[in-house]
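This part of the workshop introduces the protein records we will be handling. A record pairs a protein's sequence with a compact description of its fold. Comparing a sequence with its tokens is the quickest way to learn the format. To make this concrete, we reproduce a full record directly below:
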Amino acid sequence: QVQLVESGGGLVQAGGALRLSCAASGSTFSINAMGWYRQAPGKQRELVAAVSNGGNTNYADSVKGRFTISRDNAKNTVYLQMDSLKPEDTAVYYCNVETRTFGTRYYWGQGTQVTVSS
């Protein structure tokens, strides 16, 4: 089992920045990929950014050049640095972690609200 605790959300003006953190605990030795999703009201949850266990990253087109995902395996933590925030970035952001033991499982953080005002 893996537990995820998110932090770093809040209210920020357009053009500002926030840094989200997601700390994993439990069976952290089994963690492979880590990522961030977001869900705005009335919309489906979408992938924002992900990083593999090998360090490869991918981003949604809407955040490329503005967001940076990183991970600290020693701390079992994944980060999302969000710069040049736009009102359309407003959503609940969820940390997601992939584990591999007998098979592949996914775990979700509790979600953290990011609100960008114009």
Summary: The chain has a mean pLDDT of 96. The two ends are 40 Å apart (CA to CA). The first strand starts at residue 2 and ends at 7. The chain has no helices and eleven strands.
